[in-house]
Amino acid sequence: MATFANGADGWRVYRERYCVHCVHYERDDLECHVMAVHILYDYDSKKDTPGRAILNILIPMDRHNKPGPCRMLYTKEETP
After folding, report:
1. What angle, 0 to 180 degrees and rounded to 10, lies between the N-to-C axes of helices 8-17 and 33-41?
2. Rounded Cα gap, residues 39 and 14, in angstroms
3. Cβ–Cβ under 8 Å, residues 56 and 8
4. What torsion do the CA atoms of 74, 41, 43, 34 make, to the nearest 10 degrees?
5. Quick check: 62 and 68 in contact, CB under 8 A?
6. pLDDT digit string (tens) for 7-53?
7. Most buried among 25, 40, 53, 67, by the most CB within 10 A?
């Protein structure tokens, strides 16, 4: 489960690295739903719960224990 360091600053770094390249980013003037559930449920999901398992699937941690690429990431370059 992605935990973003320093609150909003960590999220901004992640967004610039991955989200801005995704076709889902700011579609219909909405923020990413995957990021929204991580921000909303991050602190509530410290225990082993089904919610935490879902968050782990959506944005897994990489080998350096940092948030890795989102499983829903579909870059604009991949769009036909």
Report:
1. 160
2. 12
3. no
4. 10
5. yes
6. 566 778 888 889 888 888 875 545 678 888 877 776 655 667 777 78
7. 67
* Amino acid letter, residue 78: E
C-alpha–C-alpha distance, residues 65 and 4, integer Å:
11
User: Do 15 and 59 touch, CB atoms closer than 8 A?
Assistant: no
> DSSP 3-state assignment of 10?
helix
Give CA–CA dist 76/20, Å, rounded: 9
pTM of the complete model: 0.71
Place of tokens 């499983």: 71
User: pLDDT digit string (tens) for 40-76?
Assistant: 776 655 667 777 788 888 988 888 888 889 999 988 7
